[in-house]
Sequence to fold (187 residues):
Amino acid sequence: MSTNPYNLDGFYFRSGPKIQIHNVKADDILELRHLVLRPNQPFESTHFEGDKDLDTVHYAAFDDDGNLVACATLLDRPFIIDQSTNISNEFKEAHPELLSTVGMKARQLRGMAVHPNNRGQGVGALLLNYIETHQSALPIVTRNLWCNARESATPFYINHGWIPVSDKFDIPDVGPHYQLFRQIRSY
Ligand SMILES: CC(C)(COP(=O)(O)OP(=O)(O)OC[C@H]1O[C@@H](n2cnc3c(N)ncnc32)[C@H](O)[C@@H]1OP(=O)(O)O)[C@@H](O)C(=O)NCCC(=O)NCCS
Fold:
């Protein structure tokens, strides 16, 4: 599915590209995941563990014509340092206050993908900002987010305030990654 099946009650950004963001089902974004993130792998590889969990949220961004232009997924996953990664000395030295968040409740960002025709137009930034600010109705809350970012996309996240946690590590069939962390406090 690549068109917007939802009504006009979604979220519009009124400056920059006109983009509408909705919570969707995993099935709605698998094609885009495949195209962008797993082009040389079987379609089944686009299914992520936890996709159907009740607390998993899938986001889709649609353009004015209802085309799916970007997607991402948030999973309830504690912020852990994976066995395949090492917490970097830079992180330990620069952010000792964040070490206590290791093992804590957090959400993992996965499958962030902007359609190749829509890159570099601010769509990824809009979607990321939306996800960071629309996770909870609570007025006072601290949210811990983390992700395993492709090396090529790591500067994009750093530009948006994410902090590299790990040394570079390899995910088989996908490539080099860094683990990144983002803490958001709203008051
Ligand atoms: C990485 C990705 C999500 C960024 O989305 P996008 O819509 O192209 O990015 P935007 O246009 O919103 O860019 C926002 C800012 O980040 C910068 N940026 C975007 N991608 C970047 C990259 N790969 N490296 C460095 N900077 C990047 C832009 O220059 C822009 O900076 P500015 O605000 O100073 O002008 C998108 O390019 C993508 O889907 N890439 C392929 C899949 C991928 O790597 N996904 C991430 C998996 S971890």
